[in-house]
């Protein structure tokens, strides 16, 4: 993990965690539409962005981030925001109970209990696409990614091509097996989940609420996985700040 920090560290702290294949550059764009002034901590998860290592597991990513936050004295966050894989890392961070978060916003977070069939299908699909991508020119991969993910496409293409198959397999494993560790009710009430109606993760809403009945879930009709984020990045920061206002009111 390579952790980037932007802004005066005397300001309220916000942590933004990117989805699989994205990186800190993508999440940095969200801060551009935020009206408040913050110190933003935005990591490149392992194997993505400036990090050149292997992705192991989300629990390890959360531990690395937790160590950084504690060493810097950032034990109270105004916001913890994570998309997809980043949201999973955020859930493991919350489960440790060592960082206080005023507001938590997750987009398309994959919370499954040993979904072995999804794991098999996703592993096969990602490896097939990855092997094809590494045989293509980077420009061709960027064109394909940009057509689907807009301004995030270039970064996602670069990360997809450079990620190892081991890292991809490990990400898929994490995104299909989450332990649902207990969370205090007060923490649950500060969590807001955004998910598209066409996102396969939307089917997990009932399971999520069974384990965490205090969480707030908003379904975006007609959107796929993390597509609301990629299509509305220019105003997503304001959406997040709206949740920050709700959590503290």
Brief write-up:
The chain has 249 residues and is α/β, with parallel strands linked by helices. The protein has helices at residues 24-31, 58-72, 85-96, 116-133, 138-149, 153-162, 165-174, 185-188, 205-211, 227-231, 233-248, and strands at residues 2-6, 13-17, 39-44, 76-77, 79-83, 100-101, 104-107, 191-196, 216-220.
What do these coordinates show?
The chain has 249 residues and is an alpha/beta fold. It has a single domain (2-248), classed as Alpha/Beta hydrolase fold, catalytic domain (Rossmann fold), CATH 3.40.50.1820. It is 47% helix and 16% strand. The protein contains 11 helices and 9 strands. It has helices at 24-31, 58-72, 85-96, 116-133, 138-149, 153-162, 165-174, 185-188, 205-211, 227-231, 233-248; strands spanning 2-6, 13-17, 39-44, 76-77, 79-83, 100-101, 104-107, 191-196, 216-220. The strands form 2 sheets. It has a 7-stranded mixed sheet with strand order 1-3-2-5-7-8-9. A two-stranded parallel ribbon has the order 4-6. Strand 8 (191-196), helix 9 and strand 9 (216-220) form a beta-alpha-beta unit. Helix 2 (58-72) packs across helix 3 (85-96). The N and C termini lie far apart (34 Å). The model has no long low-confidence stretch (mean pLDDT 95).
């Amino acid at each position: 993990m390579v952790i980037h920090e932007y802004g005066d560290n005397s300001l309220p702290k916000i942590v933004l965690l990117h989805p699989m294949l994205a990186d800190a550059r993508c999440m940095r764009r969200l801060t551009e539409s935020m009206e408040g002034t913050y110190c933003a901590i935005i990591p490149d998860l392992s194997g993505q962005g400036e990090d050149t290592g292997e992705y192991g597991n989300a629990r390890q990513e959360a531990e690395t981030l937790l160590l950084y936050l504690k060493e810097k004295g950032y034990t109270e966050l105004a916001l913890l925001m994570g998309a997809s894989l980043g949201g999973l890392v955020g859930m493991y961070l919350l489960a440790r109970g060592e960082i206080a978060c005023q507001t938590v916003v997750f987009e398309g977070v994959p919370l499954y209990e040993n979904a072995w069939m999804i794991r098999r299908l996703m592993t096969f699909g990602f490896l097939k696409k990855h092997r094809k991508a590494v045989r293509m020119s980077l420009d061709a991969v960027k064109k394909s990614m940009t057509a689907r993910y807009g301004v995030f496409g270039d970064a996602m293409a670069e990360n997809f091509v450079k990620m190892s198959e081991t890292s991809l397999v490990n990400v898929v494993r994490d995104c299909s097996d989450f332990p649902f560790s207990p969370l205090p009710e007060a923490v649950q009430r500060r969590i807001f989940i955004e998910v598209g109606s066409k996102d396969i993760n939307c089917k997990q809403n009932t399971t999520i609420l069974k384990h965490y009945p205090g969480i707030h879930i908003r379904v975006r009709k007609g959107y796929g996985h993390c597509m609301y984020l990629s299509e509305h990045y220019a105003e997503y920061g304001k959406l997040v700040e709206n949740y920050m206002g709700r959590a503290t009111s």
